[in-house]
Design brief:
There is one protein chain. This protein is an all-beta fold and 97 residues long. The strands form two sheets. It has a four-stranded antiparallel β-sheet with strand order 1-2-3-4, with no helix packed on it. The chain has a four-stranded antiparallel β-sheet with strand order 5-6-7-8, with no helix packed on it.
Length: 97
């Protein structure tokens, strides 16, 4: 499990009692970007979503709980990354500007 990171934003799924936190990484940092999934009952990191998120500097986050999707901003690559929570990986990237 993660030991240290530059956390940027948190979004909560109250129905599942889970919190998702973006861990900034990539570029000049030795740690890749990831999203920590925190169990609300224990306050501990349940798992880390990192597949497809390693580059770009993941910062902001939005949750689509109905579709089991996360959307994260990749600061350094100017993209939006769509993540599948069930598969625990990024699905697609979209240019954001």
């Amino acid at each position: 499990m993660p030991r240290q990171a530059h956390l940027r934003q948190v979004v909560v799924d109250e129905a599942k009692n889970l919190a998702y936190a973006t861990a900034f990484g990539g570029g000049r940092t030795p740690t890749p970007s990831a999203i920590w999934v925190v169990d609300g009952a224990t306050g501990k990191v349940d798992h880390v979503v990192s597949e497809g998120l390693e580059e770009g500097g993941i910062t902001g986050i939005a949750l689509d709980a109905a579709r089991n999707r996360l959307f994260a901003t990749a600061l350094m690559s100017n993209e939006i990354v769509e993540g599948d929570l069930a598969a625990r990986k990024a699905l697609r990237r979209f240019p954001s500007g």
